[in-house]
Every structure is written in structure tokens, then in C-alpha cells.
Design goal:
Elements lengths: L3 E10 L2 E11 L4 E5 L6 H9 L6 E6 L6 E3 L13 H6 L14 H13 L15 H14 L4 E5 L7 H16 L3 E5 L3 H5 L3 E6 L2 E7 L9 H4 L13
Parallel strand pairs: 3-7, 3-8, 5-6, 6-7
Antiparallel strand pairs: 1-2, 1-4, 8-9
Helix pairs in contact: 3-4, 4-5
Length: 238
């Protein structure tokens, strides 16, 4: 069963048509990459899949039991907004909270594990406004991982990152795929495109190609994927 289904979906902003006549489905355990020029509709498609936007034409349905985890591109955090790295990652557990009750011990363990996977556990007490771009991006990815959703949506998660940060995110994506998560990612990075099971190219708000491929890098068992030490290395900063 598909996790997300687009049926002749489109979206129009007040000044332009961003997407039109999109019919796609995204399957569990499959890594789908969206590519195309800036302005081709990638971010709008991701926002529709995440439920952040509602289609102005057609329909988008999500069959997963939990709402999608949506990791946006890192944005500047106002210095007047106090929020630590740990607090930001904990937001990923809010869908699991019972009302306004505090996070449970299980939630705190999930948050700690997500920070460790992104190598930011030593930054837990830092304010978001103090972080570098790479640290901020890894914090947002950790928040998405902490949500433990069946659908992980990533908007150019590795843009502007160095090799070590890039590998941390790629390892985490591989782990989520082995867990059966549907991963939908936009990217311009050829390395990320080559690792995908499926590549969808958008052009002027329409799907111009939809290709399935054998990933360039095989999916390893979790222990083997971490054996190189990159994904388990704490204290690293770009």
C-alpha cells in the first residue's frame, strides 16, 4: 500500500501555478528523490505530501498511521526566540505526547538517540541562534528522526554541508529505509540522486520524468553502516 498518493493534484499561489496534474504514489521503504531547477515545484510538492499545504486542484491522501515528518531547509533563528537544540529535537515527540503532559522516559530516549545519530548530543544546551548552518540543519533532521513517522520528507537536507555532515544524514536515511519508512527528498546533489530508488524530475510544475533505478550504494545492516564511526561520532562540528 502506498504511503502518499497524489491524484491529479495541483497547487496555485496567488501569483502563479506551482504544480499541475501531478499523479504519483510513494511506497514504504522506497527512497524517492525529486530533482529539477529552482522554481520547478519541488518544495511545493513536498509541502503537499507533508500536509502543510492543501491542493487547490485534485487530491493528496496519506495512508500512514502517523503524520509525516517534514524536515525543511535550515532557516535563521531569531536571537530573541530562546530554543535549545534539545528543545528543538523534543518537538519531534510532540505528536506522541498525551495532551500537555511532559515527555515520557521513552520520548527522552528517542530524542537522545536522534541527537546521537546526527552527532549533536554535545550541543544539546546550545541556543539554535548560536549554531552554524550545518549544526542547525542536523538539528532539524534529528527532530524529524525523533518523530518516528512512517514518512520522512526532506527538503534539500544536505545542501551546503561538508562531507562528514552529509554522511551522517545519508546514514540516517539508509537506516530509516531499512525500517520501512517512505523517504521523499528533494536535492540537486548528484551523489544523493544516485543513491535513490526512484528519481522524479519536475519542470515548470509538472512531472517530466519518473525513473526507477538500482541505488548506487547498497543498503547495509545497521551495525555495518555505523562501523566506520562517522554516524556514531559525537562532538563533531562543521
Amino acid at each position: 500500500m502506498s504511503s502518499v498518493i497524489f491524484r491529479n493534484a495541483g497547487y496555485a499561489y496567488p501569483d502563479r501555478q506551482a504544480l499541475a496534474d501531478v499523479s504519483l504514489s510513494f511506497e514504504p521503504g522506497m527512497h524517492t528523490v525529486l530533482t529539477g531547477k529552482n522554481g520547478s515545484g519541488k518544495s511545493t510538492l513536498l509541502a503537499l505530501a507533508a500536509g502543510v499545504l492543501r491542493p487547490t486542484q485534485g487530491a493528496v491522501s496519506v495512508t500512514a498511521s502517523r503524520r509525516p515528518a517534514f524536515v525543511i531547509q535550515q532557516t535563521r533563528t531569531p536571537e530573541s526566540m530562546p530554543c535549545t537544540v534539545r528543545m528543538a529535537v523534543e518537538m519531534g515527540r510532540w505528536p506522541h505526547r498525551r495532551g500537555l503532559l511532559p515527555l515520557r522516559a521513552l520520548d527522552r530516549r528517542v530524542v537522545a538517540a536522534a541527537m546521537m545519530r546526527m552527532g549533536i548530543e554535545d550541543l544539546a544546551g546550545r541556543q539554535l541562534s548560536e549554531l552554524s548552518g550545518g549544526q542547525h540543519q542536523r538539528t532539524l533532521v534529528a527532530q524529524g528522526l525523533a518523530q518516528e513517522s512512517d514518512i520522512l520528507i526532506l527538503d534539500e537536507p544536505t545542501a551546503g554541508l561538508d562531507g562528514a555532515a552529509h554522511q551522517l544524514i545519508r546514514s540516517a536515511v539508509e537506516e530509516e529505509l531499512r525500517r520501512g519508512v517512505a523517504v521523499i527528498e528533494s536535492t540537486h546533489d548528484l551523489r544523493d540522486i544516485e543513491r535513490a530508488d526512484r528519481v522524479i524530475t519536475l519542470e515548470r510544475g509538472r512531472v517530466s520524468s519518473d525513473t526507477r533505478q538500482a541505488p548506487a550504494a547498497p543498503r547495509l545492516d545497521r551495525d555495518e553502516s555505523l562501523s566506520g564511526g562517522v554516524a556514531g561520532t559525537g562532538g563533531w562540528a562543521p
